[in-house]
Amino acid sequence: MTVRTRFAPSPTGLLHVGNARAALFCYLFAKGQGGDFILRMDDTDEARSTPEFAEAIKTDLAWLGLDFDETFKQSERFDKYEAAFADLQARGLVYACYETPDELERKRKRQLARGMPPVYDRAALALSADDIAAFEAEGRTPHYRFKLSGKAIVWDDMVRGSQKIETASLSDPVIRRADGTWLYTLPSVVDDIDAKISHVIRGEDHVTNSGAQIEIIEALGGDVPVFAHFSLMLAADGGALSKRLGSLSLGELRDSGIEPMSLNSLIARLGTADPVEPVQDMPTLIAGFDMTRLGRAPARFDAEDVTRLNARILHDMPYQAAAARLAEMNAPEGAAFWDSVKGNLTLFKDVADILHLIKGPVTPVIEADDADYVSAALAALPQGELTVESWSEWTQRLKESTGRKGRALFMPLRQALTGQAHGPEMQHLLPLIGYDKAVARLQGKTEG
Ligand code: GLU
User: Fold this and answer.
1) DSSP structure class, residue 275
2) Closest ligand 1 atom, CA of 202?
């Protein structure tokens, strides 16, 4: 069996980190098994789906590095849904209902008031030809329900273990609205069968759907896939992610300068008992992914965790992985620069601030109390080409000649040379600043 998974977003909005988690699990599992990852656009809601959202979804997936092997959209497949619907209807597995939303709501309330579960009573099955003619004469058009068997549906869920849905306690699901449009249930099943999806990996909000969908798959003669329903992801404060779209949208995280592997590393492990670790590349993440490690408790997403992980990813990032972006920023070539600055980065774009310290224009900061010390330092600066040894040679000399030590020894030099009180280690910065600029800065000359 070829493993085939699908990520099935509706292009009616932007992806948030919770959606990314669904996509990532589908991708990691498929790739870990040498299988295919398929992107399906659930765009049956033609009024709300837009090509712009579909493009934004593809951009987000490409940024995360979740390359799909195939893609298709549901709006191209209405004829398939019609055919499946006609087939089910011909076999009496689909039936027409004429209740208005108000009438259904009243039924629900009556049932609840009597302490009964609000399950659809199948009144439509008892309608006579005259009743139907009367409804149609009123201008009512039917919506359609799938007739559940009333049996227990069981499956072995990769995350939740053994599952049982008593279809007798469910309402027959509406699969088609009165205006002829499709609800998600039938198209999804038809697509999963046709696309030979082997594993349906999705959020636990779909567990009940799975009961009905398994019955429909069987009714259509399809192979029932393996299901994995993972727990939902919540915002750090426990709220729903979709309500906080903005800072938690993938576009926003991308624009803020987060590395995609930071996000991937975090969301692959949230909700498992395994520690979150910075993972540099997708093959490593794929190799370390085990869906059965996911627990039942909700995963909580804290954007601060991504930022922290981002710093760790950068601190471990090999030069080769950073080289192209460094070149784009006109950073000094070679691993030495990267190795000396990466430990100071939270975001890759912080490289620009460090380059600024080196290239200038910098406004040297020389406190009045330190003016004599900085003049002495200028006189003691090693001549000629500065190397990584120059800093310790220079400060050792100054320590001996001035008796200064610690912060009093180093800070005036850092502030004069970079205009800042913080930054990468001076032993690395000094050779990058170079002799001529170092001299000018120690003289307090403003550049620019
Ligand atoms: N479009 C559905 C959703 O986003 C897909 C669910 C599924 O994976 O079956 O909820």
Assistant:
1) P
2) 8
Rounded to the nearest whole angstrom, what is the distance from the C-alpha of residue 62 to the centroid of ligand 1?
20
Contact assessment for residue 214 and residue 223, using Cβ atoms and an 8 Å cutoff: no
Q: Which long-range contacts (CB under 8 A, 24 or more apart) does 347-354 make?
A: 347/256, 347/257, 347/258, 347/310, 347/314, 348/257, 348/259, 348/314, 348/322, 349/257, 351/326, 354/423, 354/424, 354/429
- Enumerate residues 6+ apart whose C-beta is below 8 A from 92: 147
Which residues neighbour 44 within 8 Å (Cβ) at sequence distance 6 or greater? 74, 75, 181, 182, 184, 187
| Res 247 pLDDT > 80 | no
For 190-218, how does the pLDDT look when each residue is reduced to its tens digit (9 = 90+)?
A: 999 999 999 999 999 999 999 999 999 99
Q: What is the CA radius of gyration of the chain?
A: 31
Cβ neighbours of residue 138 under 8 Å, at least 6 residues apart?
A: none
Residue type, position 209, single letter: N
CB contact at 8 A, 143 and 214: no
> Which residue type occupies 323?
A
User: Beta strand 299-301 with 233-235: parallel, antiparallel or unpaired?
Assistant: parallel
pLDDT for res 244: 64
Number of Cβ within 10 Å of residue 71's Cβ equals 15
CA of 133 to the centre of ligand 1 (A): 37
